[in-house]
Amino acid sequence: MIILALDAALGRCSACVVSDGVVLARRQEDGGRGQAARLAPMVAEILASAGIAATALTAVAVTVGPGSFTGLRAAIALAQGIAAGAGCPLIGVTIAEALIAALPATAASRDVWVAIDSRRDRVFLLRGAEHAAYALDALPAATGKIAVAGDAAIAVACRLAARATGSIMLTDARLPDIAMVAEVAANRLAGQLPALAVEPLYIDAAEAKLPAGGLRPAPVSEGR
């Protein structure tokens, strides 16, 4: 099973080729969001490095969010194109799934809260099937044993610990490990995880909206 995995959802742009659980090649660049333009060159680099033709892929995996509006759409569009050209399945993986897959057993055995910085003075909180946005001062009550992951994990863990409720563990999982994206995809492809639609997972509505009545055609000049 050869899987190409792509991610540009948060502060890292990354890609890897994995064959039966072994990473053949990988590339990543950390930094601000909006690096999705680097994904296509990365894919070409790692396929060449691994000596794998796109037509040999068993599946293409891509993170679906939550995360950057531009990063998600660019990565998904690229993954769709590669999968269509290779004639192989396209597998979606959430940020929470990828982060949880990387956790040690001591953390994964707890209730895992994945906290993503929304860049709007709030965090996206993923707890099991719940995906919601919260202000840091209005986080839900934490009871029992909680492990916190994600790029906003430090802020959320500090707020929860200040309340002195529950047992809070701050994990080292901040951004998705691209190899874990491939691992989750392999499990989904094998039927060990439920199917997931390959479309952006947005928690907030998109800021750009169509005008009432939809798009209107531009006026056509009559010419001379």
What does this structure look like?
By secondary structure, this protein is of the alpha/beta class. It has two domains: 108 residues, Nucleotidyltransferase, domain 5 (2-Layer Sandwich), CATH 3.30.420; 68 residues, Nucleotidyltransferase, domain 5. The protein contains six helices and ten strands; from the N terminus they run βββαβαβααββββαβα. A five-stranded mixed beta sheet has the order 3-2-1-4-5, sandwiched between helices. Helix 3 packs across helix 6.
- Our count of helices gives 6
Global morphology: elongated
What CATH calls the topology of the largest domain is Nucleotidyltransferase, domain 5
Structural class: alpha/beta
What proportion strand?
A: 25-35%
| Widest β-sheet, arrangement of strands | 3-2-1-4-5
| CATH architecture classification of the largest domain | 2-Layer Sandwich
**What's the story with the biggest beta sheet?**
5 strands, mixed
Tally the beta strands. 10
Question: In brief, what are we looking at here?
Answer:
Helices cover 28% and strands 28% of the residues. It is an alpha/beta fold and 224 residues long.
